[in-house]
Fold this protein.
Amino acid sequence: MTYTHAPVVEALIDIQVTPRAGLSALDLLAALHPTLRDDYPEVQELPPTPPGDPSIMPIFQFGLANGFLGGARYLSADRRRLVQVRLNGFSFHLLCEPDAEERRYNKWDVLRDEARSLWDIYRKMALPESVIRVGLRYINRFDLRGEKIRLSDYFAIFPQRSGLLSGQAIANYALQMVLPQADIHAMLVINQALGQPRMSGTASVVLDLDLYRDRANGLLAEEDIWPVLEALHTRKNEAFEACITDLTRDLIR
Protein backbone atom coordinates (compact mmCIF):
# COMPACT_ATOMS: atom_id res chain seq x y z
CA MET A 1 0.00 0.00 0.00
CA THR A 2 1.19 3.52 -0.80
CA TYR A 3 0.81 6.18 1.90
CA THR A 4 0.62 9.92 1.18
CA HIS A 5 2.12 10.73 4.59
CA ALA A 6 4.74 8.00 4.72
CA PRO A 7 6.43 7.99 8.15
CA VAL A 8 9.88 7.11 6.74
CA VAL A 9 12.74 9.21 8.13
CA GLU A 10 15.48 7.16 6.52
CA ALA A 11 15.64 4.41 3.90
CA LEU A 12 18.88 2.77 2.88
CA ILE A 13 20.36 0.05 0.72
CA ASP A 14 23.60 -1.52 1.90
CA ILE A 15 25.89 -3.85 -0.05
CA GLN A 16 28.89 -5.35 1.71
CA VAL A 17 31.79 -6.95 -0.09
CA THR A 18 35.14 -8.65 0.26
CA PRO A 19 37.57 -6.00 -1.03
CA ARG A 20 40.20 -6.93 -3.57
CA ALA A 21 43.68 -7.44 -2.22
CA GLY A 22 45.89 -4.37 -2.16
CA LEU A 23 43.12 -1.77 -2.42
CA SER A 24 43.38 1.07 0.09
CA ALA A 25 40.61 3.41 1.18
CA LEU A 26 42.66 6.34 -0.07
CA ASP A 27 43.01 4.82 -3.55
CA LEU A 28 39.31 3.98 -3.69
CA LEU A 29 38.22 7.47 -2.71
CA ALA A 30 40.68 9.08 -5.12
CA ALA A 31 39.06 7.07 -7.93
CA LEU A 32 35.48 7.78 -6.85
CA HIS A 33 35.70 11.41 -5.82
CA PRO A 34 35.73 13.01 -9.31
CA THR A 35 32.55 11.12 -10.20
CA LEU A 36 30.62 11.82 -6.98
CA ARG A 37 31.61 15.35 -6.02
CA ASP A 38 29.26 17.23 -8.38
CA ASP A 39 26.07 15.56 -7.12
CA TYR A 40 27.39 15.03 -3.58
CA PRO A 41 29.53 18.07 -2.75
CA GLU A 42 29.80 17.65 1.03
CA VAL A 43 32.38 15.03 2.00
CA GLN A 44 33.16 13.66 5.47
CA GLU A 45 35.74 11.05 6.38
CA LEU A 46 34.66 7.80 8.04
CA PRO A 47 36.68 5.65 10.47
CA PRO A 48 37.31 2.00 9.59
CA THR A 49 34.50 -0.48 10.23
CA PRO A 50 35.29 -2.52 13.35
CA PRO A 51 36.50 -6.05 12.47
CA GLY A 52 33.65 -8.54 12.48
CA ASP A 53 30.94 -5.86 12.53
CA PRO A 54 28.43 -6.74 9.74
CA SER A 55 26.12 -3.80 10.34
CA ILE A 56 25.79 -0.45 8.66
CA MET A 57 24.60 2.32 10.97
CA PRO A 58 21.84 4.53 9.60
CA ILE A 59 22.44 8.26 9.59
CA PHE A 60 19.38 8.64 11.82
CA GLN A 61 21.40 7.29 14.75
CA PHE A 62 24.98 7.53 13.51
CA GLY A 63 27.53 9.59 15.41
CA LEU A 64 30.66 10.68 13.57
CA ALA A 65 33.90 9.41 15.08
CA ASN A 66 37.49 10.42 14.50
CA GLY A 67 40.01 7.79 13.54
CA PHE A 68 41.92 6.27 10.67
CA LEU A 69 40.41 6.66 7.24
CA GLY A 70 37.98 3.86 6.51
CA GLY A 71 35.92 5.55 3.81
CA ALA A 72 33.87 8.64 3.13
CA ARG A 73 30.35 9.96 3.33
CA TYR A 74 29.08 12.06 0.41
CA LEU A 75 26.05 14.27 1.06
CA SER A 76 23.96 16.00 -1.61
CA ALA A 77 23.48 19.78 -1.56
CA ASP A 78 19.84 19.40 -0.45
CA ARG A 79 20.97 17.02 2.32
CA ARG A 80 18.44 14.41 1.27
CA ARG A 81 20.71 11.85 -0.39
CA LEU A 82 23.82 10.34 1.06
CA VAL A 83 26.39 7.80 -0.13
CA GLN A 84 28.74 5.98 2.21
CA VAL A 85 31.76 4.39 0.55
CA ARG A 86 34.02 1.96 2.41
CA LEU A 87 36.58 -0.65 1.49
CA ASN A 88 34.16 -3.35 2.57
CA GLY A 89 31.06 -1.92 0.99
CA PHE A 90 28.71 0.79 -0.07
CA SER A 91 25.40 2.21 1.09
CA PHE A 92 22.92 4.73 -0.28
CA HIS A 93 20.56 6.61 2.04
CA LEU A 94 17.46 8.72 1.49
CA LEU A 95 16.91 11.11 4.40
CA CYS A 96 13.26 12.10 4.71
CA GLU A 97 11.00 14.27 6.81
CA PRO A 98 7.38 13.08 7.14
CA ASP A 99 6.15 16.55 8.21
CA ALA A 100 7.51 18.35 5.11
CA GLU A 101 5.75 17.50 1.86
CA GLU A 102 8.77 18.27 -0.32
CA ARG A 103 11.01 16.03 1.81
CA ARG A 104 8.75 13.03 2.33
CA TYR A 105 9.69 9.57 1.17
CA ASN A 106 8.07 9.03 -2.21
CA LYS A 107 8.67 5.60 -3.68
CA TRP A 108 10.92 2.57 -3.80
CA ASP A 109 11.97 3.17 -7.40
CA VAL A 110 13.84 6.35 -6.43
CA LEU A 111 15.86 4.60 -3.74
CA ARG A 112 16.54 1.49 -5.81
CA ASP A 113 17.46 3.19 -9.09
CA GLU A 114 19.90 5.70 -7.62
CA ALA A 115 21.47 3.04 -5.43
CA ARG A 116 21.94 0.81 -8.46
CA SER A 117 23.55 3.59 -10.48
CA LEU A 118 25.93 4.40 -7.64
CA TRP A 119 26.69 0.73 -7.03
CA ASP A 120 27.75 0.37 -10.67
CA ILE A 121 30.21 3.24 -10.16
CA TYR A 122 31.52 1.75 -6.93
CA ARG A 123 31.84 -1.75 -8.42
CA LYS A 124 33.85 -0.55 -11.43
CA MET A 125 36.27 1.37 -9.22
CA ALA A 126 36.56 -1.07 -6.30
CA LEU A 127 36.44 -4.36 -8.24
CA PRO A 128 35.42 -6.31 -5.12
CA GLU A 129 36.19 -10.01 -4.91
CA SER A 130 32.69 -10.99 -3.77
CA VAL A 131 29.38 -9.75 -2.33
CA ILE A 132 28.86 -11.01 1.22
CA ARG A 133 25.76 -9.14 2.43
CA VAL A 134 22.82 -7.24 0.92
CA GLY A 135 20.57 -5.20 3.18
CA LEU A 136 17.54 -2.93 3.13
CA ARG A 137 16.53 -0.79 6.08
CA TYR A 138 13.57 1.53 6.67
CA ILE A 139 13.31 3.68 9.78
CA ASN A 140 9.84 5.10 10.44
CA ARG A 141 8.80 7.72 12.98
CA PHE A 142 5.20 8.08 14.07
CA ASP A 143 4.28 11.32 15.86
CA LEU A 144 1.13 10.55 17.83
CA ARG A 145 -0.94 13.30 19.41
CA GLY A 146 -2.28 12.98 22.93
CA GLU A 147 -1.10 13.09 26.51
CA LYS A 148 -1.78 9.40 27.06
CA ILE A 149 -1.13 7.11 24.11
CA ARG A 150 -2.20 3.47 24.10
CA LEU A 151 0.37 1.69 21.96
CA SER A 152 -2.10 -1.09 21.24
CA ASP A 153 -4.30 1.41 19.39
CA TYR A 154 -1.56 2.08 16.85
CA PHE A 155 0.67 -0.99 16.75
CA ALA A 156 0.24 -4.75 16.56
CA ILE A 157 3.55 -5.18 18.38
CA PHE A 158 4.18 -3.36 21.64
CA PRO A 159 5.44 -4.11 25.18
CA GLN A 160 2.73 -5.76 27.27
CA ARG A 161 2.37 -5.49 31.04
CA SER A 162 0.31 -7.33 33.62
CA GLY A 163 -0.52 -7.26 37.29
CA LEU A 164 1.03 -4.39 39.24
CA LEU A 165 2.66 -3.01 36.06
CA SER A 166 -0.47 -2.87 33.93
CA GLY A 167 -1.59 0.59 35.00
CA GLN A 168 1.83 2.23 34.94
CA ALA A 169 2.91 4.67 32.23
CA ILE A 170 5.86 3.74 30.02
CA ALA A 171 8.55 6.42 30.16
CA ASN A 172 10.77 4.58 27.68
CA TYR A 173 11.17 1.18 26.08
CA ALA A 174 13.06 -0.71 23.38
CA LEU A 175 11.73 -3.86 21.74
CA GLN A 176 13.58 -6.11 19.28
CA MET A 177 12.59 -9.21 17.34
CA VAL A 178 14.90 -11.18 15.03
CA LEU A 179 12.85 -13.28 12.63
CA PRO A 180 14.37 -15.68 10.08
CA GLN A 181 12.66 -15.41 6.70
CA ALA A 182 13.34 -18.91 5.43
CA ASP A 183 11.29 -18.58 2.24
CA ILE A 184 13.48 -15.73 0.94
CA HIS A 185 16.72 -16.81 2.67
CA ALA A 186 16.90 -13.63 4.71
CA MET A 187 16.65 -12.18 8.20
CA LEU A 188 14.20 -9.57 9.46
CA VAL A 189 15.11 -7.46 12.49
CA ILE A 190 12.31 -5.33 13.94
CA ASN A 191 13.22 -2.63 16.43
CA GLN A 192 10.59 -0.45 18.08
CA ALA A 193 11.22 2.25 20.67
CA LEU A 194 10.03 5.57 22.00
CA GLY A 195 11.75 8.50 20.33
CA GLN A 196 12.23 12.07 21.41
CA PRO A 197 8.84 13.86 21.21
CA ARG A 198 8.74 16.36 18.37
CA MET A 199 6.46 18.76 20.24
CA SER A 200 4.52 19.08 23.48
CA GLY A 201 1.52 16.79 23.76
CA THR A 202 2.85 14.15 21.36
CA ALA A 203 4.65 10.84 21.58
CA SER A 204 7.12 9.66 18.94
CA VAL A 205 7.45 5.95 18.22
CA VAL A 206 10.25 4.65 16.01
CA LEU A 207 9.69 1.48 13.98
CA ASP A 208 12.91 0.22 12.38
CA LEU A 209 12.69 -2.62 9.81
CA ASP A 210 16.06 -4.09 8.87
CA LEU A 211 16.17 -6.92 6.32
CA TYR A 212 19.25 -8.61 4.92
CA ARG A 213 20.67 -11.68 3.26
CA ASP A 214 24.22 -12.75 3.92
CA ARG A 215 26.28 -15.85 3.29
CA ALA A 216 24.80 -17.55 6.32
CA ASN A 217 21.38 -17.41 4.63
CA GLY A 218 22.40 -18.31 1.09
CA LEU A 219 24.99 -17.75 -1.58
CA LEU A 220 25.24 -14.30 -3.12
CA ALA A 221 26.42 -13.50 -6.61
CA GLU A 222 26.51 -10.05 -8.14
CA GLU A 223 23.55 -10.85 -10.36
CA ASP A 224 21.56 -11.73 -7.24
CA ILE A 225 21.80 -8.27 -5.67
CA TRP A 226 18.79 -6.55 -7.22
CA PRO A 227 16.41 -9.54 -7.28
CA VAL A 228 17.27 -10.09 -3.60
CA LEU A 229 16.58 -6.44 -2.81
CA GLU A 230 13.21 -6.64 -4.57
CA ALA A 231 12.31 -9.62 -2.39
CA LEU A 232 13.50 -7.78 0.73
CA HIS A 233 11.43 -4.73 -0.21
CA THR A 234 8.29 -6.81 -0.69
CA ARG A 235 8.85 -8.43 2.69
CA LYS A 236 9.50 -5.03 4.28
CA ASN A 237 6.10 -3.84 3.08
CA GLU A 238 4.45 -6.97 4.47
CA ALA A 239 6.23 -6.58 7.81
CA PHE A 240 5.28 -2.90 8.04
CA GLU A 241 1.60 -3.72 7.51
CA ALA A 242 1.82 -6.48 10.11
CA CYS A 243 3.21 -4.02 12.69
CA ILE A 244 0.54 -1.31 12.46
CA THR A 245 -3.22 -1.03 13.01
CA ASP A 246 -5.99 0.51 10.92
CA LEU A 247 -5.89 3.63 13.09
CA THR A 248 -2.25 4.17 12.11
CA ARG A 249 -3.08 3.52 8.47
CA ASP A 250 -5.72 6.25 8.62
CA LEU A 251 -3.15 8.68 10.03
CA ILE A 252 -0.67 8.19 7.20
CA ARG A 253 -2.95 7.77 4.19
Q: What stands out?
A: The CA atoms of residues 3 and 250 lie 9 Å apart.
